[in-house]
Amino acid sequence: MCDLLHFASRVPTVPVQRVIDVSALVAARKEATPRVSWPAIFTKAYSLLCLQSPEFRRAYIEYPWARLYEHPHSIASIAIEREYKGESGVFFAYFPQPDLMTLPALDTAINRQRTEPVEELFAYTFWIYRMPRFLRRLLWWYMINVRGARKTEFIGTFGLSVYSSLGAESLHPLSPLTSTLNYGVIGNDGKVTARIIYDHRVMDGSTVARALIRLEEILNSDILRELKGMAPSVPEQPAREAA
Question: Using CB atoms within 10 A as the burial measure, which of 51, 77, 91, 134 is most buried?
Answer without folding.
Answer: 77
